[in-house]
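Dear Dr. V.,

Thank you for agreeing to look over these. As mentioned in my earlier message, I'm a first-year student in the group and I'm still getting used to reading structure tokens, so any feedback on how I've presented them would be very welcome. I ran two proteins. I've put each sequence directly above its structure. The first is here:
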Amino acid sequence: MRAPIGDFDAVRPAPQALDLLVAPVADAVRGWSGPVPADELVHVDTEPEWADTATFVEHYGPELLDQSANCVVVAGKRGGGTTLAACVVLSRARVDVNGAVRRQLGARKASFAPMDTATGETGMEYGGITPIGLPGTWPLLVDAAVAGLPWVLVGSGSRRGKLIVPGKVFPELPNAVLIEGLGVE
């Protein structure tokens, strides 16, 4: 099997790579009911030390930068409460935490969640967090530019491996909200 984007040696439909996925992502793939068949979610095996975007595109090809997205965990605070959410933006962009995120969450203050919170609450590894398999109550904020791509390379839940997913999947994920300008360059 060839990946729909990029040039990878080990490529499998995600349902055939459950052993390489962390538990919440594997569970989401097993119970998949998204807008495309689960077999269209593709797992590519990659080196964990190359998981960060800049290193990844250096090793796997600069053309992937325009086809990749990052998923980050944010914390919105209002009064004494904190709302955790995930944001998906193109890899070349940064999340508009103090604007779009804060407004969408109705928060007085928003910031990136601490690494321990992000990994502990998602069950995923830092540097591999993906929107597939997030806690079911979390808002998922998706930049419209991500949904507009034919194929998107995102984390797989661990630093080893990535998922390649049709862009149209992202607005259909649980609690997803499509936002123009969530990612700013």
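The second protein is here, in the same arrangement:
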Amino acid sequence: MIDLIINNLYNVRNNIEQTEVLVTSIKEKERVFKFSSVETKDHLYNIYNDRLDFSIYRGDHFEGLAEVVEEMKNSDLENIRLSYIDGIKKSCSIFSSEDYSIILGIIFYDN
């Protein structure tokens, strides 16, 4: 089930409205998110901007990383929720408003 959710998120990643609908539908399901926490925008931006710089330097770029960093930079949100879904083939990190009403972006990782 988790891999199906990640695949669905991957398939709609370029359509923010469909992504928001999908995240809204899964946020209440038990055991979908391996973890979820709220941090300040500045804190998460600094961490993931550094990861972007490092990944560009190393040449190993995760899909969605640059878009998430840009959205965080331009966001008016004070706090951002980071939620992680761990699948068998892929995993992903979802960056959103605290209540998931605004999705900033998703980073996808191959396992």
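From my reading of the second output: The chain is about 45% helix and 25% strand. The helical segments are 2-11, 16-26, 41-58, 65-74. Does that match how you would interpret it?

Kind regards,
E.
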